[in-house]
Design brief:
four-stranded antiparallel beta sheet; globular; mainly beta
Protein backbone atom coordinates (compact mmCIF):
# COMPACT_ATOMS: atom_id res chain seq x y z
CA UNK A 1 0.00 0.00 0.00
CA UNK A 2 1.26 3.45 -0.88
CA UNK A 3 -0.21 6.91 -0.38
CA UNK A 4 1.51 9.59 -2.45
CA UNK A 5 0.78 13.13 -1.24
CA UNK A 6 1.46 16.10 -3.49
CA UNK A 7 0.36 19.65 -4.20
CA UNK A 8 2.03 21.58 -1.42
CA UNK A 9 3.97 24.75 -1.93
CA UNK A 10 4.37 28.41 -1.03
CA UNK A 11 1.25 30.56 -1.24
CA UNK A 12 0.33 34.05 -0.09
CA UNK A 13 -2.26 34.60 2.63
CA UNK A 14 -5.72 34.38 1.13
CA UNK A 15 -4.55 32.04 -1.60
CA UNK A 16 -5.56 28.48 -2.43
CA UNK A 17 -3.93 25.10 -2.86
CA UNK A 18 -5.23 21.64 -3.64
CA UNK A 19 -3.48 18.67 -2.12
CA UNK A 20 -3.73 15.24 -3.72
CA UNK A 21 -3.29 11.82 -2.17
CA UNK A 22 -2.93 9.14 -4.82
CA UNK A 23 -3.44 5.63 -3.46
CA UNK A 24 -2.10 2.33 -4.69
CA UNK A 25 -2.76 -1.02 -3.09
CA UNK A 26 -6.05 0.08 -1.57
CA UNK A 27 -9.33 1.48 -2.81
CA UNK A 28 -9.97 4.92 -1.31
CA UNK A 29 -13.72 4.33 -1.41
CA UNK A 30 -13.33 1.44 1.06
CA UNK A 31 -11.41 3.48 3.62
CA UNK A 32 -11.85 6.55 5.76
CA UNK A 33 -9.42 9.06 4.27
CA UNK A 34 -7.96 11.89 6.31
CA UNK A 35 -5.61 14.82 6.11
CA UNK A 36 -3.48 15.55 9.15
CA UNK A 37 -1.08 18.43 9.56
CA UNK A 38 1.88 19.17 11.76
CA UNK A 39 3.22 22.66 12.26
CA UNK A 40 6.75 23.26 13.60
CA UNK A 41 6.89 22.61 17.32
CA UNK A 42 3.31 21.36 17.46
CA UNK A 43 1.62 17.99 17.60
CA UNK A 44 0.09 16.44 14.53
CA UNK A 45 -3.60 17.31 14.28
CA UNK A 46 -6.51 16.08 12.23
CA UNK A 47 -7.58 18.70 9.69
CA UNK A 48 -10.27 16.83 7.76
CA UNK A 49 -11.71 13.37 7.25
CA UNK A 50 -14.09 11.73 4.79
CA UNK A 51 -15.79 8.46 5.65
CA UNK A 52 -16.77 5.65 3.32
CA UNK A 53 -20.32 6.97 3.25
CA UNK A 54 -19.11 10.44 2.30
CA UNK A 55 -19.59 11.93 5.74
CA UNK A 56 -17.02 14.64 6.40
CA UNK A 57 -15.41 16.10 9.48
CA UNK A 58 -13.39 19.30 9.74
CA UNK A 59 -11.37 20.80 12.53
CA UNK A 60 -12.85 24.09 13.69
CA UNK A 61 -9.73 25.89 12.50
CA UNK A 62 -10.33 24.90 8.85
CA UNK A 63 -14.12 24.65 8.71
CA UNK A 64 -15.58 26.71 5.88
CA UNK A 65 -12.20 27.06 4.16
CA UNK A 66 -11.08 23.47 3.46
CA UNK A 67 -12.94 20.77 1.54
CA UNK A 68 -12.03 17.10 1.53
CA UNK A 69 -13.15 14.89 -1.33
CA UNK A 70 -12.17 11.79 -3.30
CA UNK A 71 -12.28 10.65 -6.88
CA UNK A 72 -13.06 6.95 -7.16
CA UNK A 73 -11.99 6.73 -10.79
CA UNK A 74 -8.57 8.20 -9.98
CA UNK A 75 -8.38 6.45 -6.59
CA UNK A 76 -7.27 9.75 -5.12
CA UNK A 77 -8.29 11.89 -2.15
CA UNK A 78 -8.05 15.67 -2.21
CA UNK A 79 -7.93 18.59 0.16
CA UNK A 80 -8.98 21.89 -1.36
CA UNK A 81 -7.67 24.70 0.80
CA UNK A 82 -8.99 28.23 0.31
CA UNK A 83 -8.48 31.49 2.18
CA UNK A 84 -5.19 30.20 3.51
CA UNK A 85 -3.71 31.78 6.60
CA UNK A 86 -0.13 31.81 7.92
CA UNK A 87 -1.26 29.50 10.72
CA UNK A 88 -2.09 26.87 8.09
CA UNK A 89 1.64 26.47 7.48
CA UNK A 90 2.49 22.83 8.18
CA UNK A 91 3.45 19.51 6.69
CA UNK A 92 0.25 17.86 5.51
CA UNK A 93 -0.12 14.09 5.60
CA UNK A 94 -2.82 11.92 4.09
CA UNK A 95 -3.86 8.78 5.92
CA UNK A 96 -6.24 5.85 5.54
CA UNK A 97 -8.04 3.55 7.95
CA UNK A 98 -10.82 1.00 7.84
CA UNK A 99 -14.09 2.45 9.10
CA UNK A 100 -14.24 -0.10 11.92
CA UNK A 101 -10.80 0.89 13.19
CA UNK A 102 -9.69 3.88 15.24
CA UNK A 103 -6.17 3.66 13.88
CA UNK A 104 -4.86 5.12 10.65
CA UNK A 105 -2.53 2.42 9.43
CA UNK A 106 -1.48 3.88 6.10
CA UNK A 107 0.28 7.24 5.81
CA UNK A 108 1.63 9.32 2.98
CA UNK A 109 5.02 10.96 3.11
CA UNK A 110 3.79 14.51 3.74
CA UNK A 111 3.77 17.65 1.65
CA UNK A 112 4.87 21.07 2.88
CA UNK A 113 2.42 23.97 2.80
CA UNK A 114 3.82 27.39 3.56
CA UNK A 115 1.54 30.42 3.75
CA UNK A 116 3.56 33.61 3.76
CA UNK A 117 3.74 36.98 2.08
Amino acid sequence: VQLQASGGGLVQPGGSLRLSCAASGLIVGNYDMAWYRQAPGKERELAARIGTSGTTYYADSVKGRFTISRDHAKNTAYLQMNSLKPEDTAVYYCAARRSYSFTYVYWGQGTQVTVSS
